[in-house]
Amino acid sequence: MPALGPTHVEHAPVIESAGSLVWRERHGELQVRLVHRPRYDDWSWPKGKLEEGETFQAAAAREVAEETGKPIVLGIPLPGLQYLTGEGRVKRVHYWAAQRASRTRDAGALAARAPVPPVSPHEIDAGVWLSAQDAATRLTRDADRTPLDALVRARDEDRLATHVVVIARHGKAVARGAWYGDEHDRPLTPSGHAQSAALVPVLAAYGVGTVVTSRWDRCAQTIAPYASASGLATVSSDHLTEVQHERSPARVARTVRELLDVDGSSVLCTHRPVLPTVLDVLGQHSRRPVANALPTRDPFLEPGEVIVAHVARTSKGPRVVAAEKIAPPLH
Question: Ranges for the Nudix hydrolase domain (predicted)?
């Protein structure tokens, strides 16, 4: 996420929130969705506070659905905001671009989400689609124009319409020295299973519709909760195992390139020794600032961590225009 900047308030309790700028194009015009909150009599972006143990991404998807009545799929991260509330507390809001989810294309991701209540008229009593220019005028708070300006720039630079390729390192596994079975059967620990469960709402928020994993148990177990919740078939690959990667890193690279090329969003779960090849392919297809920000040191990702690569289609092929590193929530 973009840096949010200092608060200049020492020891102030922080309220963490998340939301989205939901966008669409109509007749070549960029439009965004605003909501009206009767309690504050203001027009703003749909957003809300995190629930306990919830990631920012899951909160953004949930809150937008609760305040607009429609599920969304997250896109690129946008600049967040930070300010003092009337009670003197610091509030941080994390924003993403987003589009309305498709009941067909995103059916798996939607099935993996928890149900949300209908829009409460006491919380939101109106919503409207406006052009970006009209939205800038309608917004009650000047600060809310910051993520809007970033959204417009991304659209002008062909960085707004994206799909994601999520690179996941398997969850925490039983130590090699403590396992007496075959290496490919080495399983997750209880904390590893918790990490795999925590992945479900994150992958669902990004609309992941293709699941690709190393055939070894610790990777298969990491991705199994999402595959089960979404009803998606899992593509298990020997190429993504540690042994096969040593023999042919080119096959791993080809798998990553294929996921970059397709339009739908996907997740690829693999092992620490395979990550340098995966990240090299991402770097080759990234904008320079994104490539420079990718991990370069072992272990690249901790167990259960993921990188969300946002991929735009360009005349020169797929281009990673943004990347986020997400750790599983602490329990």
Answer: 13-153
